[in-house]
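note to self: dont lose this again. the chain is below, predicted strucutre after it. 222 aa total, dont forget to put it in the shared folder this time
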Amino acid sequence: MVLLNNDTEAHPRWLEHLVGALERYPSYDFAASKLLLFDQRDRIHSAGDFYRPDGVPGSRGVWEYDRGQYDAVVEVFGPCAAAAAYRRATLEALRIHGKVLDENLVMYCEDVDLNIRARLRGVRTVFVPAAVVYHRLSATGGGTLASYYCGRNFALVWAKRMPRAVMRRFWPRLLGSQLRFALHSLWHIREPAARARLRGQAAMLRLLPLVLSRRFAPDVVQ
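---
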């Protein structure tokens, strides 16, 4: 199965390289593309995604000039779903209540959530630098919408998916990252995106008790 955003332009051989990598490397079940900026095609948007223990996701190489520093085929945490390939059988095994993606997240971080679930099950991702896609950022979403759902979903995904041992060890880092986001938004409160992120964090605080109670209730599968 392949996902490709509607705000992208794929290199003519993108699909060949991406799917071909899964055929060449059977120990990998996900394949990540090299995403470059649509309007600045020498700059990177994602060379595979990563996830930090403080609940903040990110992309390798983001905003860097593409000088070939990410041209090696390597294992990464997960793909950005704007342009990625997945083995169908693996996605079937990762379904929760019949769904591959967590629809409660609505948008933004649903691929992060999938990547975490996959990693916890031992699923591996290969980064395929020859599979190039040009991404027009925020052409469909972005702006205040992105700020709101990132503010809402960063901590919710962490609370839903982190193993208990990780939660016990790293909850101060999660709290620290959330406070930094809030303080940054307050400093820029005149900006619509900053206000949207604060609204998202407020929504997260309302939802967090329910998420945690459902997760740790007996016989409940998230």
